[in-house]
Structures are given as C-alpha cells and as structure tokens.
C-alpha cells in the first residue's frame, strides 16, 4: 500500500523559512511527477510546485522566487524549501505523487495527509 508522509510544518514568523519533506513508501516501482499543494480554510486546494523525475519544475505564481522544490529519486522523496514566508502562505500543505507500482502498471496519484504551515507573528 503506497503511503505518502509529510513532515516539517509548523509555526513561523513572517519572513521566516520552513522546509517540508515527503517520503513515499510501500510497494513503489518508480515515482513520476511529485509535488506540493496547499489548502487554506474556505479555499480550494491549489498547486504550489511540481517536479518531474528528470528535475524540471513548475511553480504557482504566488510562490515563484520564494519556494524551491527538489527531490531525491533514490529515496522516493520530495522537498519544499519555503523562504520569505507570508501570512497568506498559511495552509495545510499536501504532498502528491504519481506512482508506478510495477513495470507494467499505469501511474496512479497518491496524496499525503497534509502538514500545517502557519505564518504569524
């Protein structure tokens, strides 16, 4: 059973930094696109950043220049370095990964349970 587990959330002051981590485990043959999404109270879930297996990245407009996504394919892990955090970055951050469970399977999307990031003074 594929599981994604996030860590690294917490409370930080405006202008501060946090680093989120996500590890995928459980019968994984290969991970494809991995990414981070976030959802604030009363808002829809939105894309924060994505990274392809080869390293190409895509960022949401609100985080460009402040957040950096990276991955370690050998560890089935994805990371999000968040700098210059703003109160509007407050949300639950979810890890997402497209996973092949066998050589012949199609990729299926999996989600973590989320980690809370709160930016407040």
Q: Explain this structure to me?
A:
By secondary structure, the protein is mainly β. It is built from no helices and eleven strands. Strands 2, 4, 5, 6, 9, 10 and 11 form a seven-stranded mixed sheet that branches. The protein has a four-stranded antiparallel sheet with strand order 1-3-8-7, with no helix packed on it. It starts with a strand and ends with a strand. 29% of the residues are buried.
Properties at a glance:
single chain, 121 residues, seven-stranded mixed beta sheet, 11 strands, 0% helix, elongated
What's the arrangement of secondary structure elements?
Elements: E1 3-7, E2 10-12, E3 18-25, E4 30-39, E5 46-51, E6 57-59, E7 67-72, E8 77-82, E9 91-100, E10 108-111, E11 115-119
Parallel strand pairs: 2-11
Antiparallel strand pairs: 1-3, 3-8, 4-5, 4-9, 5-6, 7-8, 9-10, 9-11
Helical residues, percent: under 10%
SSE order in H/E notation?
Answer: EEEEEEEEEEE
- Please give the number of β-strands: 11
CA-to-CA gap between the ends? 40 Å
Biggest β-sheet strands, sense, barrel:
7 strands, mixed
Radius of gyration: 14 Å
Q: Low-confidence spans: pLDDT under 50, at least 5 residues?
A: none
Mean model confidence by pLDDT: 96
- Our count of helices gives 0
User: What overall geometry do the principal axes of the alpha carbons give?
Assistant: elongated
The secondary structure category is mainly beta
């Amino acid at each position: 059973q594929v599981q994604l587990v996030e860590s690294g959330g917490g409370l930080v002051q405006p202008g501060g930094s946090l680093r989120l981590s996500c590890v995928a485990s459980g019968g994984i043959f290969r991970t494809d696109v991995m990414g981070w999404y976030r959802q604030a109270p009363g808002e829809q879930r939105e894309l924060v950043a994505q990274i392809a297996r080869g390293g190409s990245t895509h960022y949401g407009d609100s985080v460009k220049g402040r957040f950096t996504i990276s991955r370690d394919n050998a560890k089935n892990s994805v990371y999000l370095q968040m700098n210059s955090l703003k109160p509007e970055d407050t949300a639950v951050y979810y890890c997402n990964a497209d996973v092949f469970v066998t050589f012949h399977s199609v990729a299926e999307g999996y989600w973590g349970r989320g980690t809370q990031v709160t930016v407040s003074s």
